[in-house]
Amino acid sequence: MAYKDLAEKDLISLLQQNDDAAFSEIFNRHWGFAYLHALKLLNDEDEAKDIVQEVFTSIWNQSGSLTGETNLRAYIFSAVRNRTLNHIRDQKVRSEYMDLFAIYCAQHQNIILDAIHEKELLSAINLVIDSLPPRMKEIFELSRTEHLSHKEIADKLDISTGTVKRQISNALYILKDRLDKPENLIVIIFLQSIKGH
């Protein structure tokens, strides 16, 4: 069967039967424009590749949502756009939160030290780090413990710098989320201080 000669509705039908070759043909037909679309929005080659990879992974995992009438180019265009915009929004929120948190800590050092013992906070942080997914934990520790740059980590683990940045950002987000408990007064005090922002 010459997959390159098949109509897209036929490729979709085969894809829904978990046909690897059909998926490869869809990928080959649409990867280029999907990547250029993501790159235009992100202006970062590695992050653009990651976004497109996520979109095609989603297509494979959720092929049942497609129909023979689905316009794959329009579907992929929309998926790339939405996933990219969500990524930009999440990165902006996390970046703003971490910046604000750093400023708060610098301005309220005495209150923080009175509110929670350093060893208790460190212990709580280490527990959360130990609970991270193995790959995320490895990347986070290479960054925070060995002080490697994003590029050095990417080269060491043979992954993209975009993946490194995303994993570190996700780890920081998880730390904040897991430490947001009454016994961790530093976080509670900080959260209260930004309620009006």
UniProtKB/TrEMBL annotation:
It holds the Pfam family Sigma70_r2. SUPFAM superfamilies: Sigma2 domain of RNA polymerase sigma factors (SSF88946), Sigma3 and sigma4 domains of RNA polymerase sigma factors (SSF88659). Keywords: Sigma factor, Transcription, Transcription regulation. Residues 125-172 form the RNA polymerase sigma factor 70 region 4 type domain. Residues 27-92 form the RNA polymerase sigma-70 region domain. One of its GO terms (biological process) is DNA-templated transcription initiation. GO terms for molecular function: DNA binding; sigma factor activity. Belongs to the sigma-70 factor family. ECF subfamily. NCBIfam families: Sig70_bacteroi1, sigma70-ECF. This is RNA polymerase sigma-70 factor. It comes from Mucilaginibacter rubeus.
